[in-house]
Structures are given as C-alpha cells and as structure tokens.
Write a structure and sequence with these properties.
Helix content is 22%, strand content 24%. By secondary structure, the protein is of the alpha+beta class. The chain folds into two domains: 227 residues, Extracellular Endonuclease, Chain A (3-Layer(aba) Sandwich), CATH 3.40.570; 71 residues, no CATH class. The N and C termini lie far apart (94 Å).
Length: 348
C-alpha cells in the first residue's frame, strides 16, 4: 500500500515544478530578447541598415554544378518554393554576415508599393563595399549562346534581393556574382540569372497590385569558400500562381573560378571575329522600334534597353541603337536592376 506524501514531499514537488516553469519562461524571454536585438546589434557592429542580422536560416542549401547545355541562361527550376516564416508585408529581413564576412540570405514579402518604392529610390554608391571574395575583378570577354560576346567586368556586386524588390544596397544583401549570374546570357532578350527570378516577381506584382510575393534568396557556399557556388531563390505569390524554387549558377562560360578566393582563369579563348553584343542587325532586316510605352503612369523617367546590350538610352535615334535586334521602354530603376549603365553617346 502506497504511503500518502508528507507535506514536505508535496512542497518539494511544487517547488521543482515552479523552478522548471520559471527556467523555461526565463529561457523563452532571453531568446525573445536576443531575437529582438539581433538586427540592431549587427547593424551597430557592421554599419549596415535596419533589418540586418535577423531571423533568416543560415544553413547552406544544396547546389549543383553548372551545365551550360542544360542551363544556358544560368538558372534551373528545381520545383516548388520552400516557404518559411514570412516577414511583415513590404519588408526584407537579412541574415547577419557570418564569421567569414559572407552574406547569408534574405527573405522579403514584397508588395506592389514596396516594389515601386524600391524602383524610385536612388541607388546608393556601393563602390566601397566589398562582398566576400571580391578583389580579383577584371574586364573579360564572355561568350554568349547567340554568338555575341559580353565585354566587361567578370564580377558584379549581385543583390540577393534586387533594389526594385525593396532590397538594400548593403553588404548583407550583396555577393560576388559573375555577370552571367546577375543577368544571365541574354538569350534573345530573355532574362536569365537572378534577373529571371526578379522579373517573375515584378511581373506578377504589376498584374496583382493588391497581392504579395514571398521572395527568399540563399547563397550556397562550399565549406569556407568566400564565393557562393549558386543562389537558391524561392518565390511564391499570394495566389499561388507563381510557386517555384530556382537555382541560379555563379559561373561563366570559359572561366574556371576559385570559389575559395574569387580568383579565376580563362579556360576558353574567344575568336576575335565574334561580334560584340548588339553588333548584329535583325535577321530579317526589319526596322526595330521599342516595345512598351515611353510614358510611365507613376511619372518615372523611362529609357530604352536592348535585348543584350550593356547600356540604356534616352534617344531612339542614338547611334548606339543602330544595330539592335530588340528594344524596350523600361524605367531607369528597371534598367539599373538589369545591370545597365547610361549610354556614353546619348547619356542615357
């Protein structure tokens, strides 16, 4: 027969229960305080903007090697988006820089208004910001699938979340990305690389101004390498019409990249007879006129971009457009997010 518990046994049990509850509450409060202060602490340490160092997963996602035959525009679709905790509407949350100074990820819940605000915001000077692996940049020639050649710097300061989606011009939002990782190979004017992902989000928001787009970008590193092998991007619209996970390759045809340092070697020489981007005329000889409207409903200045050129133009008669195969009116913000710069002839 079990003896009834004495007063002291009951009291001791109650004390243990209370201590356990108090400890759990204390740990929970500590975790909450750490979460709330993480972003501001990181911003103070690095001089970066609001939202840096918040609750973003930092585990490196799996990546694959780039296959130029399977992914000529430097991305591949992996399946449906993996969606985690959503930040407040119209905001972007960034992972803190890790011990190696690497950007670790960003998650946004983009609205039409936050997209428009990002487009309208002046781009900040990032020339003094050095993403991990930066320091080996040089002008190069990259062969493109259409037979043209990109001539310019191999690396861009590539945004995880584009400015046009509300992303910061800050280290926590930048990686050392190849030109083709940033904008793809410009196959027949079709966006590639990160530009493909950004276009999916922007195009949906233009058609659904009351909706939201979950947009997360996570660099995939190998061990302690300073340069990401790929960026994994998850995009899901609030109506589910866009629901995709994409791998964007940080590579360039004809180049072997040392991802540990950012140094690179040329592995494939380009024939000097190949045309530079935009140097070939339309195959049918027809006159090319810009698509879209030169007027913006929001009053933004619009400029002309070509399918694969490096500049944007304000003058349809600019000689820099003489041999363009396709042209389109876009806002200056959109042109900048495509990696374009003002034309040296007409001034953009």
């Amino acid at each position: 027969m079990r003896r009834p518990k004495t007063f002291w046994q009951v009291a001791r049990s109650l004390v243990l229960v209370l201590l356990t509850l108090a400890l759990g509450f204390g740990v929970g409060m500590l975790a909450t305080r750490l979460y709330a202060s993480w972003g501001s602490d990181q911003a103070a340490e690095t001089g970066e903007g609001e939202g840096a160092g918040s609750d973003v997963p930092v585990a490196t996602p799996a990546y694959s090697a780039w296959d130029q035959d399977e992914s000529p525009n430097y991305y591949r679709v992996l399946g449906k988006a993996h969606v985690g905790t959503r930040p407040p509407e119209g905001t972007v949350v960034y992972g803190r820089l890790d011990a190696l100074g690497r950007a670790t990820g960003a998650v946004a819940l983009v609205t039409y208004d936050s997209m428009e605000a990002g487009r309208a915001r002046s781009r900040e000077d990032v020339s003094e910001l050095y993403p991990s692996g930066w320091g080996h940049n040089q002008e190069v020639d990259i062969a493109l699938p259409d037979g043209t050649v990109y001539h310019g710097f191999l690396y861009n300061r590539s945004h995880l979340v584009a400015k046009s989606l509300g992303g910061d011009d800050a280290l926590h939002n930048l990686i050392c990305g190849t030109r083709t990782q940033n904008v793809g190979a410009n196959i027949e004017g079709y966006d590639g690389g990160m530009a493909y992902c950004e276009s999916l989000a922007r195009q949906w928001l233009v058609r659904h101004k009351e909706g939201t787009v979950y947009y997360a970008a996570m660099p995939a590193y190998e061990g302690d390498e300073l340069v990401a092998r790929s960026v994994i991007v998850d995009i899901r619209s609030s109506d589910g019409a866009v629901d995709v996970r994409i791998e964007v390759y940080n590579a360039a045809k004809g180049f072997e990249i040392d991802y540990a340092t950012g140094a690179f070697e040329v592995t494939e020489a380009i024939a000097p007879t190949r045309q530079v981007q935009d140097a070939s005329k339309p195959a049918d000889g027809a006159e090319v006129v810009p698509s879209g409207s030169p007027e913006s409903s929001e009053g933004e200045r619009k400029v002309i971009v070509t399918g694969s050129g490096k500049a944007y133009h304000h003058d349809e008669t600019c000689s820099g457009l003489a041999n363009a195969r396709s042209m389109e009116w876009v806002t200056v913000g959109e042109a900048e997010d495509m990696g374009r710069h003002p034309c040296s002839i007409c001034g953009g």
